[in-house]
Design brief:
single chain, alpha/beta, Rossmann fold, 7-stranded parallel beta sheet, globular
């Protein structure tokens, strides 16, 4: 199984970084591969956590060189697509864990939810309505801790069976 983890390359708090690293450790302990955007910040932290427990990490890179990947990425995938690679990141995972995040993270959340991929949130974007009267409250499954996020991601992926 592969779970996508998304978040900012420049996280606003150390708490987000610590949560990402613990999510990576939890996923690796359960023999789940991590896919992310492959760069710094949350992406590096989740990969570092996964590698500390012997996990496998995949980085979907926005640029033209594998060398752009953080040092914890096992499998760098070069796209030359910039933010368009966000679609690939979320579609590679069977569920998505969003930790904090800026506008790139918000776009990934939108792509995942729009395509029926479960999103679990750890202190990430709140969603209330899309402006068309369609209620999207609860679209992001809220988690209380990294272990809770991993539990919910695995359960949502199994229930969704979108593959």
């Amino acid at each position: 199984m592969i779970i996508a983890v998304i978040g900012s390359s420049n996280p606003s708090t150390k708490e987000h970084v610590d949560m990402a690293e613990e999510v990576g450790r939890e996923l690796a302990r359960r023999d789940v591969m991590v896919v992310c955007g492959g760069l710094s910040g949350i992406m590096e932290a989740v990969c570092r956590g996964a590698k500390s427990e012997g996990g496998t990490t995949i980085g979907i890179l926005p640029g033209r060189a594998a060398a752009e990947a953080n040092s914890y990425v096992d499998i760098p995938i070069v796209t030359s697509m910039g933010y368009a690679r966000n679609v690939i990141v979320v579609h590679t995972g069977e569920a998505v864990i969003a930790i904090g995040g800026a506008f790139g993270t918000l776009s990934e959340i939108g792509h995942a939810l729009g395509d029926g991929i479960p999103v679990i949130g750890l202190k990430t974007w709140p969603l209330s309505t899309n402006g068309d009267g369609i209620d999207i409250v609860g679209a992001i499954i809220q988690a209380e801790s990294p272990a809770d996020a991993v539990d919910k991601a695995l359960a949502a992926a199994a229930a969704n069976n979108h593959r």
